[in-house]
Amino acid sequence: MLEDIQEILLSSEQLSARIREMGRQISADYAGKEILMIGVLRGAVIFMADLARAIDVPVALDFMAVSSYGASTTSSGVVRILKDLDEDVEGKHLLIVEDIIDSGLTLNYLLDNLRSRKPASIKICTLLNKPERRKVDVQVDYNGFTIPDHFVVGYGLDYAEKYRNLPFIGILKPEAYKS
Ligand SMILES: O=P(O)(O)OC[C@H]1O[C@H](OP(=O)(O)OP(=O)(O)O)[C@H](O)[C@@H]1O
Ligand code: HPA
């Protein structure tokens, strides 16, 4: 697995320091409120687990699974819901948690979908942001790191379901791509 990594972009120490900062900012912004964190499966799970523990206001967790990538390094542009939320979100403060925003197509779809369910508020929190690849504009409220246009893996992010358990964010060697 490690032999497929070209370069470590963000070490586990850099990730945890930034996530603690994000947690402090989110806790201050939501003081006196409860947050319903909506994790976008599967990539966001590891970030969400760490972020939730860095927040000191009450946090409930729910998950949606959508897919637009499959075993590819570019989005198909077609977003499908594979698993919907378990909770009714009307009147709640939603914080969508993503591992990465790339084209923006996944979040654009999710935002439209969740807005129609009448929450009290919706904000977006992402660990990584690749603005160079944006196809639709997305307003990000909490951004961990802005990164250049490389295909990255680790800390939840995969290529063809591999590398999610690496404790850092690494750039994948191009020869590790099948396509
Ligand atoms: O901004 P976009 O171009 O839409 O890309 C971002 C989305 O792509 C990845 O999910 P993926 O579909 O690969 O599923 P996964 O989380 O299970 O890896 C990532 O977790 C985001 O949800
Ligand atoms: O760079 C990436 N790595 C893994 N999954 C992704 N989904 C969008 N961009 C990426």
UniProtKB/TrEMBL annotation:
Localization terms from the record: Cytoplasm
Catalytic activity as recorded in UniProt: IMP + diphosphate = hypoxanthine + 5-phospho-alpha-D-ribose 1-diphosphate; GMP + diphosphate = guanine + 5-phospho-alpha-D-ribose 1-diphosphate
GO annotation terms (biological process): GMP salvage; guanine salvage; hypoxanthine metabolic process; IMP salvage; purine ribonucleoside salvage
Chain ranges of the Phosphoribosyltransferase domain: 9-159
Pfam families reported in the protein's UniProt record: Pribosyltran
EC number: 2.4.2.8
An example Gene Ontology molecular-function term: magnesium ion binding
Enzyme class: transferase
Protein keywords: Cytoplasm, Glycosyltransferase, Magnesium, Metal-binding, Nucleotide-binding, Purine salvage, Transferase
CDD domains, per the entry: PRTases_typeI
Cofactor(s) needed: Mg(2+)
GO cellular component: cytosol
Pathway membership: Purine metabolism; IMP biosynthesis via salvage pathway; IMP from hypoxanthine: step 1/1; Purine metabolism; GMP biosynthesis via salvage pathway; GMP from guanine: step 1/1
Domain of life: Bacteria
Matches recorded under PANTHER family: HYPOXANTHINE PHOSPHORIBOSYLTRANSFERASE, HYPOXANTHINE-GUANINE PHOSPHORIBOSYLTRANSFERASE
Function (record text): Purine salvage pathway enzyme that catalyzes the transfer of the ribosyl-5-phosphate group from 5-phospho-alpha-D-ribose 1-diphosphate (PRPP) to the N9 position of the 6-oxopurines hypoxanthine and guanine to form the corresponding ribonucleotides IMP (inosine 5'-monophosphate) and GMP (guanosine 5'-monophosphate), with the release of PPi.
Protein family: Belongs to the purine/pyrimidine phosphoribosyltransferase family.
Protein name: Hypoxanthine phosphoribosyltransferase
High-level lineage: Bacteria, Bacillati, Bacillota, Negativicutes, Selenomonadales
